[in-house]
Amino acid sequence: MGDQVNLPQRSNTVRTTTTTNTALSDDEIIPESDMSATTNILLERLQAWKHMCGYLENYMTALHKAEKSQSKEFEKVLKTVSEPLKEAHHFHSGKDGVAGLFDNLRANTQGLVNLHLETEKSLKTIVLPTLERLHQEIKAKAKELRQGAAKGTKQVEKARSNTQKHIELLGQYAAAFDSSRAKLESAHDPYILWRGTNHRMNKQITEENNHLQDMLQVQNSFSQFETHILETVQGALNQFFQCMGSQADRQRAMYAEIVGAAQQIPPDFEWIDFFMRNDSSLLNPNTPPRTMSNVSFPNQDHHATKPRIEGTLERKSRAIVKGYSAGYYAVSPAGYLHGFKDNDDYRHEPTPDITLYLPECTVGNADGLKFTIKGKDVSGTKVGQAFHTNSELSFKAHTKNEAEKWLAVLTSAVNPSGPVSSPTSPSVSRQASGAHGIPPLSSAHDSASAGATPTSPTSTSQQEEGVISPQNDGVVAGAAKSEKDKS
Question: Which residues form the PH domain (predicted)?
């Protein structure tokens, strides 16, 4: 028991100068640095690439869903033209007309539905799987890096741990050797411990260098792997371009076909076809326009519609300065004298400006071209309202012959019991003036003068339009009696 050597503790040897130097040399031999930072940043980069790939996957997934949704939207569009055209019989039934245009529209819209479904399928089965495989490759690369780094780090740490233990033993027994010359076990001989430390240190360095080479190889492989990632992404996007480009080209061709079907229809094609099929119901464009000359209506030629006389007369205006104004006058078989502004029945309604019922009127003061009519205007016009009482109206014919014709007809109309004259016109005499049994204007005037007491002539102011003249009725009656006797 006296031969035993009490070995000093590590805590005591640390306080010595030798152990302190040994501890400092230990820190220099086994640095605390490792390659975990390199591993972490490489793993983070792979994570970034994985997320990038995931973004593209999400994009393509959303896009192929949008294409499927778009096909459903075009199915709704197709339903708007799925039913036949209303009143389709009005259009040409062949493919060259409007009906054919809508057939083309339906076919190409159905084609658009199918086209979006095909695009959805291509994105889902061609583009998206490429990105999904790349995603799995990136995940596998990260797993490989994580596992390889962990294995190399574990081996290095194990080697470092062994070296550290042997260094500590060397330091412990080297301190024991310095403090005491007692016998040491052979296994604890500082020489043996020193050589064992060299062996372990070499093994540690070998493990560290192997781990370094492995990490350098992994780091260098990142350049090639990222090249592979980008090439794969470019290939997937090229497939995407081919898919969408094909869709765009076919879609454009379908729209062009729709437009072409519409443009090939001649502008008058549908009308000509419609006209030919319905010519019995449509108007003949060669039908001449109707004119009054070839129009007839009931009682158009009734004898009551033919004036006994008509033509242009001049009537004296109430205003002295105006004198006579021309108008168109007619004596109807019904016994009315109608006065118009003109003889145009077409441009405006032929409403008389003045109307006298001749059986209630008297005719007198015949003097060459002039004569007067005393009576009440019954036209109801503005002029007629001015003559709502009996007035004497002065007229003047263009020729003496016309004056005689007018007087003859007017006199017979004033005295209905006399002979009825046939229609006549101042311009074209249908019968001789003698046929009315009316003597010439001078004879009638002489007879009237012989059969009645002479009276003073009517003043000019009394013959104006709308002025009641106190005419001697005996003159008119005598003239009428003389005409009746001569007839």
Answer: 306-415
